[in-house]
Amino acid sequence: MTVLELKAQHDALQKIATTRDPIRALAEFVWNALDADATSVSVELNRNPLGGLHAVTIRDDGNGISRARAMEDFENLGASWKRSRQRTRLNRVLHGKEGQGRLRFFSVAQRASWWSIYRDGDTLRKLSIQIASDSLHKSEVTEVDLADSDDATGTIVELNPLKDTFDWLTGEEARTDFAAVFAPYILQYPDVVITFDGHTVDPSATVAHSKEFPAHSVICPTRVIKDLSIKVIEWKHSVGGRKIHLGGQSGVVLGSLPANVTAPGFEFSAYAYAPFFQEIADANLLEFDGLNDVDFVKVIDHIRDQLGDYFRARQAERSSELIQELKNAGVYPYEGDPKDEVEKRERQVLDIAIHAVSSYSRDFKRAENPLKKITLGLLREAVRHNPEAIHNILHHVFNLPKNRQDEFSSLRQKTNLGNIISASTLIADRVVALEVLKSIVFNPTHRRTVKERGELDVLVQANTWIFGENFHITLAEAGLSRVMQRVSEELTGHKGKRKITKPDGSSGRVDSFLGRIVPHQDQLHREFLLIELKRPSLKIGRKETDQLEDYVNAVRKQPDFNSTSTYWNFFLVTGEYEDDVGERITQQGRPSGVLIQKETHVVWVKTWSQLIRECEARLHFIAEKLQVEVTDEFIEERIAQLKSSILKEEPKILDQAAAASNPSHAEPKSTRASDAAAPPG
pTM of whole model > 0.70? Predict the structure, then answer.
């Protein structure tokens, strides 16, 4: 027996030999067998009578380890016969060149034993090598006699006893992880057979799809990484964990790290090859979590970006196939091509959500078409009005797992479609509202019959942005309504319910006055928006503006607002105004339309045409880019809806009409659903 002493300190060898991944430790012995031109390698998990794992055996039919090789390689750290070669005798790629892989057993077992049969000329010889985990610097090399069954070259490595139970190695996750490591090698050399715990690694039977990226360069902070190639294998079944496997050359895996790539519904392994990874492996750095070498970080980020782009494209392919199936079944909630840019983006988000649901929810897959149609219709409405709510729907309605929800959210955020749809829908809704308003006030058919109460007020109170972006969000406040009613009673002397009559004695409808509170970051400050609406057919004069000014002053002086920080925005909107009113609201030194401007309040007088023209100017550019189209039929439908809403509530509104004066009065709080958010003043 010869005792070879590796010329290195034990603690240094221990650091080199340590790995936190038992699969990688076992893989090193398989790689050594493949480098020795083995065509058959098996990893056997030896169980005790109770079924527990107590040893691991690796068998191969390679060339074996000669005494001369053992004398050289096992005595010198970093020495290996592979250093002088690029390929094996069978012209396969080589895995290791540092002579360190044989020590990986340290993390798994207390002892590693080799029995290797090699050919010395025409004679077969057998060698025994023993290394203990507490003496990594010593290898016991012994020539032993051949057994009767020893008739071919090969090596058997036994790791026994194990340092831990490692029972999880017998499970499916370990098996699939092992298979993922050697899949590209088997695909490259299909004549090689590798088995793990009796299961043959057969990627051809489990590969669903694969993609190879051409070799390219990556510019890093301190160097250019050349010849980086990437391969993706999509599996038909789960592989336990998505990983990026790193190698120096195609087919060889030196180390792995989590993929951290959003790819909902895909089971995959990625393989990145470059000489740079061989350098990292030779420095024994692939074992470090969070390796912060700036060039390594840059390359990994690049790989993940490439994978992200790839899986987004694959997601689109899958989605298009699924969407076509739903269209053929007549359950997809859209028809034809997108009518504008808003709907196009809505469909993109909906398609992502549909794929997430379909890839996980068995109930959805098995559902009858009518139920699918209802479900997808509800999803469409959620996307159209609140894309952010889709995440909650996937959780509460479809019970999508947390990881699938996160994948969907990440994918949606990366596409930024949620924000685009929110903005696009906002603009589209404004364009529609403006087109309806234009038809109401300009179309002679509606202009003569339109009512302030129940038609104009319903439309305006839902779209206070038309008076400026600072009024985009306004809130209801019951107190303001009561104040406005009280002022109306004080100015007119009328209390309670009263009937409004025209000069000819016929019944009339009072004008509409809306009141809203404007949110402010200072909770002690209040800002109010008060709007008086006049019919488009009405032309006002000085009498109406004087009445408005009286109303403004009366509201401001109410005890509710004495000695408080309060600002008032009054708007009077009418069809036309007389020349003397025009003179008062077009004075030098202040904006056109301002009737009164003080430190605590401003009073505007605008015609419907001026108000609409200003809104169109603000919306024109974005609306043009979105290509939002509003048909005449749609406008008429919306106007009909407005008219039907007032007719349904007619008795209640007439009963409440007594609170106002003409032309300025307070409108009681409406109970219509469309009015609930905006009680008029």
Answer: no
